[in-house]
Design goal:
Number of domains: 2
Distance between the termini: 42 Å
Number of strands: 20
Structural class: alpha/beta
CATH class of the largest domain: Alpha Beta
Strand order of the largest sheet: 6-5-7-1-8-11-2-12
Radius of gyration: 22 Å
Helix content: 25-40%
Shape: globular
CATH architecture of the largest domain: 3-Layer(aba) Sandwich
Number of helices: 13
């Protein structure tokens, strides 16, 4: 078996033509849908970037125990399992978080990997004395800073070396992915994980991809939306959305290069293709930009998924309504290669859904560590927030005390205690570290980052935009029951039930 796993970052499903998008031209995603089974009810699990990837690797949720962090010694990575089973895996990515403190154990699970430099705050180009005054004139005040190691300053410096189409990291990712296929497509038993950071912010695309999305904006470069409420002018909002459209168009173009290669070499006959994203993105909906710091609306949580499998070629162009989520990818990839699914996996293989419409799960929970536990059954969504966001008792369970881009602070580790093994840690005890404001992540991905922390419920059938909360005691009670059931299935610690006011 041969598999290409193509992962984008922050790809909003509503921007794609196969999902009804009309504002952005995405003809190659339409081509993709004609070759694949398209999943209409695919949801995230753990958020944001690296927690989502841990779900993808392990086939189980991690946001109930941990914020942003590495793969743990007890985790079942699909890439590591494939290596043991004799299936070769290769990672090509410009997603620089894989090389940060909080992601440094992911890429090492593959047999080989290639890192493409230059995205966002990737510490790539060295510039001891940047031309600050020139940068101040070039960039919008909301994305200019002289602070070292800030994502905006790093991006301004990196961008000096990214000018032509061929310079862009996502383009170089696809170059490297096609190079792997050129050298290895005739071999057997391999998986290519091809991943680009785009269309994640900053929305920097080659100029030719912006021409179809003009605006009246006349100011300096503005393509880096804040993680805040919308306060920009109409022209500034239009500019940000147009730049997102341009970078999605770039992603569509690069996808087209891959589809062309598969067409040219008849790879649809013997190669599986899985295309998805880690999460979506808010582009002003609900008066918010970005993700993480606001309720987990469907613009973020409800994501695209396309799967082609040679054994189910007759299903090309069909759609599935069954509820699925990120953690289902790992057992699907393993089963594609004839491998057993480890006992710790709580995700479910999607191969039965490739054959025909069926139900693989009744509900799915998802969220950011320490925030709401959200649930959907495909019809309703409930955002269940703790009555007290900052109450004591929230803990991280880990043997790898790393945050997004730094180690756990000594101050937070001073309160750590060794806890007995959890059901999925294979007998290994773990550190129980209180999640307090002493943590560098408390205000970035933890409770301190959250806004609008009010429990609400929506009926997606009558209100797909989630604009009008409903009150239905019976539905609320049923969904709370689903949350409790799925938290138990995923071995949530007792204090997480207490935090939400649920019976363990």
């Amino acid at each position: 078996m041969k598999t290409i796993f193509l992962l984008f970052d922050s790809l909003n499903r509503r921007s794609l033509q196969p999902y009804g998008g009309t504002a952005i031209k995405t003809p190659n995603f339409q081509r993709l849908a004609e070759r694949c089974v398209t999943f209409d009810n695919h949801y995230v699990g753990s958020l944001p970037c690296m927690p989502a990837r841990r779900d993808m690797h392990t086939g189980r949720l991690n946001f109930l125990h941990r914020g942003w962090g590495p793969l743990e010694p007890f985790d079942n990575s699909f890439a590591a399992l494939m290596h043991r089973a004799g299936v070769y895996s290769h990672l090509v990515s410009d997603h620089y978080h894989y090389w940060g403190d909080g992601g440094a154990t992911y890429h090492n699970r593959y047999d080989t990997y290639e890192f493409i430099r230059g995205q966002e705050r990737d510490p790539w180009k060295a510039m001891v004395q940047p031309p600050w005054e020139r940068f101040r004139e070039m960039y919008h005040p909301k994305q200019f800073t002289q602070e070292r190691r800030h994502k905006h300053s790093a991006h301004m410096i990196n961008r000096e070396a990214i000018r032509e189409y061929g310079d862009f990291p996502s383009v170089r990712c696809f170059d490297a992915g096609l190079e792997f296929l050129q050298g290895n497509r005739e071999a057997q038993d391999w998986l290519l994980h091809l991943e680009t950071f785009d269309p994640h912010e900053p929305f920097h695309a080659p100029a030719e991809f912006r021409k179809d999305y003009p605006t009246s904006y006349q100011g300096p470069i503005f393509d880096f939306p804040p993680y805040k409420r919308v306060t920009e002018t109409i022209a500034e909002c239009d500019e940000l959305r147009a730049n997102y459209a341009a970078i999605v168009a770039l992603c569509d173009h690069e996808l087209g290069r891959l589809l062309d290669y598969m067409d040219e070499h008849a790879m649809w006959d013997d190669t599986a293709l899985v295309v998805t994203t880690d999460h979506g993105f808010l582009l002003g909906e609900h008066s918010w930009w970005s993700k993480n710091v606001m309720p987990c609306y469907d613009e973020v949580a409800h994501i695209p998924l396309f799967i082609h499998h040679p054994a189910f070629r007759k299903q090309a162009g069909t759609r599935r309504q069954g509820l699925t989520q990120t953690g289902d990818l790992m057992p699907t990839l393993l089963q594609m290669h004839g491998m057993e699914i480890p006992a710790e996996v709580t995700g479910v293989s999607l191969l039965p859904l490739l054959e025909k419409e069926t139900t693989v799960r009744e509900a799915a929970i998802y969220g950011v560590f320490g925030s709401a536990v959200n649930v959907t059954d495909g019809r309703y969504t409930l955002f269940l927030y703790p009555p007290e966001m900052h109450r004591a008792g929230l803990n991280q369970y880990t043997l790898m005390p790393m945050h997004m881009k730094e180690m756990f602070a000594v101050e937070e580790l001073a309160e750590a205690r060794l806890a007995p093994p959890l059901p999925f840690t294979k007998g290994a005890p773990v550190l129980r570290v209180p999640a307090t404001p002493k943590s560098p992540q408390y205000k970035l991905h933890g409770p301190g980052a959250q806004n609008d922390t009010v429990t609400v419920m929506f009926d997606l059938a009558s209100d797909p935009g989630q604009e009008h909360p409903i009150n239905d005691a019976a539905v609320h009670a049923r969904l709370c029951g689903e949350i409790a059931r799925l938290m138990k299935q995923n071995d949530a610690p007792p204090e997480y039930f207490e935090r939400l006011g649920l019976a363990a």
